[in-house]
Automatic annotation (TrEMBL), chain A:
InterPro entries: AAA+_ATPase (IPR003593), ABC_transp_ATP-bind (IPR050319), ABC_transporter-like_ATP-bd (IPR003439), ABC_transporter-like_CS (IPR017871), Oligopep_ABC_C (IPR013563), P-loop_NTPase (IPR027417). The keyword Nucleotide-binding applies. It comes from Shinella pollutisoli. This is ABC transporter ATP-binding protein. Pfam families: ABC_tran, oligo_HPY.
From TrEMBL, chain B:
This is ABC transporter permease. It is found in: Cell membrane. Residues 69-258 form the ABC transmembrane type-1 domain. Belongs to the binding-protein-dependent transport system permease family. The keyword NAD does not apply. Its main location: membrane. It is a multi-pass membrane protein. Keywords: Cell membrane, Membrane, Transmembrane, Transmembrane helix, Transport.
Amino acid sequence: MASLLSVKNLKIEATSYPPGEPPRTVTLVEGVSFDVEKGKVLGLIGESGAGKSTIGLTSLAYGRGGVRITGGEVLLDGEDILKLSPAGIRKVRGCKVCYVAQSAAAAFNPAHRLGEQVIEASLKHGIMSRAEAEKRAVHLFGVLGLPNPETFGQRYPHQVSGGQLQRAMTAMALCPNPELIVFDEPTTALDVTTQIDVLAAIKHAIEETHTAALYITHDLAVVAQITDDILVLRHGKMVEYGPVKQIIEAPREDYTRALVNVRGTKREEAADQSGALLRVENVTAGYGMLRVLQDVSLHLPKGQTLAVVGESGSGKSTLARVITGLLPPQEGRITFDGKPLPKALKGRSNDELRRIQMIYQMADTAMNPRQTVRDIIGRPLTFYYGLRGEKKTARVKELLEQIEMGGRFADRYPAELSGGQKQRVAIARALAASPELILCDEPTSALDPLVAEGILNLLHKLQEETQVSYVFITHDIAIVRAIADSVAVMHRGRLVRFGPKSKVLSPPFDDYTDLLLKSVPEMEIGWLERVLETRRMESAGN
Amino acid sequence: MRLSTIPISAWIGMAGIALSVICALFAPLLAPYGESQIVGAIWQPMGGEHLLGTDNLGRDLFSRLIFGARTTIFVALAATILSFSLGMLLSFTAAVTGGFVDQVFSRFNDLMMAIPTLIFALVVLAVLPQQLWILILVMAVLDSTRVYRIGRAVALDVAVMEFVEAARLRGEGTGWIIFREILPNTLSPLLAEFGLRFAFSILFLSTLSFLGLGIQPPAADWGGMVKDNKDGIIFGISAALIPGGAIAGLAICVNLVVDWLMKRTSSLKGGRGDG
């Protein structure tokens, strides 16, 4: 069959303006070629900065601010769309090729109803009449499994959930009956339990409409469920290109192999889980009348890791805020090393503060952009231990060695570090206080899988060296498997399940843990169908 | 920082400010005549013995311009620095503490802002004795309400960042949080505001002097000089335009320097970036 989209030897450049130096041209993408046949799905995969989105957008002949397509051809139905006039390109965009962005919440106009926005492109291009378009929109809402398809379009973007919004955006892309859809990380911002619904809806809709698609993601397990071929990218170059089966089961390149095996790490839990460094007893907390946490009790032995899992809004981060004292609990108490902790931050002594440190999800905002690495790591040393001058410099260097970065980073500013390096510096800052407990609030969820794995290994190494305990907040079961000794599953502010990892992660499950565990994509072809099949059987059985 | 990275506009600004400051510092040495010395006929044209001509009383305009730089810059600078110290201290405290303190400060600020500045100043200055420090204080307090507004807005943005939370968790005091965590991250908008406020201060002082409540004669200040010579404009005498031009020139120079400082501080690499 002839290819619908054929990209040949694509080269994309941009001009960067480094401060104090003359502008220079940077090559973002080079020598990328691929084909998408009608009705097939190609997955573009790679870490951030690999050029996935940039390549995806070239199939709409579009370059984001300052990006220039300088070489190669993009043939759509045999026609090079890069050579089209602006008017010609307008006929392609939103008509033959549609785009689904990562953040649906940011991509919809909050001032207009969803239905209007979904049919807008079809009307603009004169593909169908208003009545036809509305009928098609309702049909698509149904196909995508949205509630009340007839009236769904009358809602405003803020009136529906994130997962529904993402599906509405898919409906918007499908509405003009395009030949190709570009999905740019459509499920990355969603919870795992929501992600599976959206994935299933997208897959169903693609099969139903026989549309070809480019599916961009950094999650190989997700892409394995939905695509026919996979193109692995790194630093703007092709690493490996082949059918999904071959990539997952017999990857040829080292990089692909690393991506496939990234979730492979598993760690045995500690045998003895008695004793408690931290004990949370019957804690209820919230903001005013709103109860975010209800009657939560858990404990963590010294030198071990407690993973707290749950979807967004389940109260995971609130639990961390209660332990740190930022949000005093309304009921219940927290004991640390046998002594009760004062509820509020103000009541705690500096030594009590020193013993509990925190690592945040976004290292960018967790560090003062106007302080050097030396200042960031050095401040806890001065503050808690009164270290100054040479002693401080030596300790900062030692800490930088410990996080595998080295003293030469001491004079850099956070803006001069990569995402993984920033998170390492944040870890060093926590470590500088020589704490007994570190609260980790999703420290790896903003990082690429390979970088995240590096951080997890580092945390594990530090635990062995210093016997520090972790409360590790995450929504990713794979991470739980990799690092936890005990697990707490949270749902809507309540503790659903708590105990040693082996016990929590093995049946019999309660409903929520079951759903959570089954929603985590596995690096296996056909996983999605299998899960959906079991679900269908269960609901039929009920 | 290398000198070559400073853009030409900043050099022009700095030169202008330096010239004004030198005039202010060494006025008695530089000025050819005394501040209130009558040296000739009124409104003599430029050139000849008197470089810029004479004013409405026959005093040397050039000398008065130099002496005027002294009072104008001193009063405007003192008032601006004072208003910034006051406004920023209160606004940052409000933003960091929040709650009741924030409400009290902010509502009182609203109250102050509800009264038109000029009328407020006129009433207060008419009642209080006419002394220089009172003039400076009144200007500073009135201006600090504006500084408070912008200070609180930018500080609130920074105060909710996680690195501030991290500092709180470390047990840092309010002083550290304000001066080490928040202040460096709010410097760019505040510097821009400083340049603007300084220029406004000069204008405000000139307005007050023009209305007779600012610097009292015979002491020279640029605004007062415009007032003294305004009648000359009707007769086509440009004496009033010269101090006016000086005010405009200084305001522009200050802003040229501030623009450059703002660029420097807004670079995320700790202000080491482009010029």
